[in-house]
Design goal:
Length: 196
């Protein structure tokens, strides 16, 4: 089984590429979504986050996301601590998920593929790229947040140029180049690797 990691900066269009792959019949694991769900339902994560950041991390209705976001986007040490708690659980969940798949190629999407060390799980890495202005406008429109909030998130992630330099394949999602031909080209490369 070939495992392909998909990453890119906030607003680059990772999820659009993932949806295209799903529509083509490929399994895609969304590490960011699974991390959010595990933060709600995992007793291990809940216990460790509460020990690290206090009872205010969770309320009766679940994870106090605004509080946690305020910590991790402004305090690099807190971000590292949260990641050290959450990422091992997500990795374990991903490996179990892979065992249940019947495809010779699976994909996993992660905004912080390198920062979380998930890139070590990948046989190949695709980076979805878009200019910063485009990413900024997309994210403001999608999330209903301010440009300053988006820029803070961008600064908390590895630079787009660094992600591209480390990629096996780059998809340009700049509103100019069609995505489907690029995805098909990436899939052709993977198919070539399978027959070698």
């Amino acid at each position: 089984m070939i495992k392909v990691g998909i990453t890119g900066g906030i607003g680059s269009g990772k999820s659009v590429v993932s949806e295209l792959l799903r529509s083509m019949g490929y399994p895609v694991f969304d590490t960011d979504r699974e991390a959010k769900q595990l933060m709600e339902r995992s007793v291990i994560i809940r216990t460790k986050l509460t020990e690290a950041f206090g009872d205010q991390v969770y309320s009766e209705s679940g994870l106090n996301r605004p509080y946690l976001a305020s910590l991790i986007f402004h305090d690099p040490a807190a971000r590292l601590q949260v990641n050290a708690i959450v990422h091992p659980e997500v990795r374990s969940y991903f490996q179990n998920w892979c065992e249940g798949q019947h495809s010779d190629v699976v994909f996993f999407e992660s905004a912080i593929l390198y920062e979380s060390d998930f890139h070590h799980l990948a046989d190949a890495i695709w980076v979805v790229s878009a200019p910063e202005k485009v990413r900024l406008m997309r994210t403001v429109r999608r999330d209903g947040v301010t440009p300053e909030q988006v820029l803070a998130r961008m600064r908390s992630q590895l630079a787009q140029e660094e992600k591209e330099a480390r990629a096996d394949f780059v998809i340009q999602n700049n509103n100019e180049e069609a995505l489907i031909p690029q995805v098909l080209s990436g899939l052709a490369r993977i198919r070539e690797a399978l027959v070698r």
